[in-house]
Write a structure and sequence with these properties.
12 helices; binds S-adenosylmethionine; alpha/beta; two-stranded antiparallel sheet
């Protein structure tokens, strides 16, 4: 069965009396080459274990099962579970779980399903919840400063991909870019036009790959202070970083924040967009010193 064939998708959905559910961001891939490219790029090692979020009717899942040792797929929509039982029938290396990914306790989920084997994530993410899913994957998978995931290969809206892949020189650079750079390196792989989905979304998509650091190159005194600093710096984008930080960091005077910005090598009129993750680490450490004085 070709699960990317539009007629097959429509027939399968009709057979189970199902409609595409907008509330779950259901835009299924209809292009075999795209699906194969995503699966190919997800991991270099065939003996890898994979986590797929949102298998839909299983087009990408099949390709992952063909290539890798073990796949666990988490699907929120219980009405798709009987379809997946049929479309994935021939594979014995797949486990499908009917769960809301956002509600999973990620650490115990990984322990239960993968033990200590490294896991790569591969997904055509639902657009309505892309950023929260990526942040959950980054933030909740860490044990002793190291991620339980090797890499995340995900399809997102092209604008989100541009934001995630931006550098300090780009206008798209923001809090999420800086935060992501703390966890790993991100690369845009390719874009996918709306015509490659059913139903077609109104926007272009892109596949990105986030390679997570095996050991984090950035050390900070407090990760909480780092992320508070990043979100504080971008909280009021039209203001300078100094003004924006002064509104959110009540434990330190505006004057002292200005001095700290100078001490890490910048003019106090600088905007958050110009700071790299290592600049943010330096800034956060100095602010942490002020807070714990
Ligand atoms: N992987 C399929 C493909 O590429 O054709 C479907 C991708 S579709 C864009 C997103 C999928 O994620 C849908 O199957 C949807 O039901 C599922 N989904 C949405 N929110 C979810 C959540 N919170 N947890 C798990 N799955 C979710």
């Amino acid at each position: 069965m070709n699960l990317c064939d539009i007629k097959t998708i429509k027939q399968t959905m009709a057979m189970f009396s199902l409609n595409f559910r907008k509330e779950f961001g259901q835009n299924f891939l209809t292009d075999n080459m795209t699906v194969e490219d995503i699966a190919d790029n997800c991991c270099d090692n065939p003996s890898s274990t994979i986590l797929e979020i949102g298998p839909g009717i299983g087009a990408l899942t099949c390709q992952l099962c063909e290539r890798y040792d073990k796949v666990v797929a988490v699907e929120i929509d219980r009405t798709l579970i009987p379809i997946l039982a049929e479309t994935l029938e021939e594979y014995d290396n797949i486990k499908v779980l009917n769960e809301d990914f956002m509600k999973l306790d990620l650490k115990s989920f990984i322990k239960e399903n993968y033990g200590d084997t490294p896991v790569s994530v591969c997904a055509n993410l639902p657009y309505y919840i892309t950023t929260p899913i990526i942040m959950k994957l980054l933030e909740e998978s860490r044990v002793d400063g190291k991620s339980m995931f090797t890499s995340l290969t995900v399809m997102v809206q092209k604008e989100v991909a541009d934001r995630l892949c931006a550098t300090e020189k780009d206008s798209e650079y923001g809090a999420i870019t800086a935060s992501l750079n703390y966890y790993g390196k991100v690369k845009k792989l390719f874009t996918v036009a709306p015509g490659n989905f059913l139903p077609a979304p109104s926007v272009t998509s892109a596949v990105i790959r986030i390679e997570l650091y095996e050991s984090n190159p950035y050390t900070v005194k407090s990760e909480k202070m780092l992320f508070d600093t990043i979100s504080g710096a971008f909280a009021q984008r039209r203001k300078t970083m100094l003004n924006s930080l002064a509104s959110s960091m009540s434990f330190v005077s505006k004057e002292r924040i200005g001095q700290i910005i100078n001490e890490i090598g910048f003019d106090s009129n600088i905007r958050g967009e110009k700071l790299s993750i290592s600049d943010f680490c330096a800034l956060a450490d100095k602010l942490y010193e002020e807070k714990t004085k």
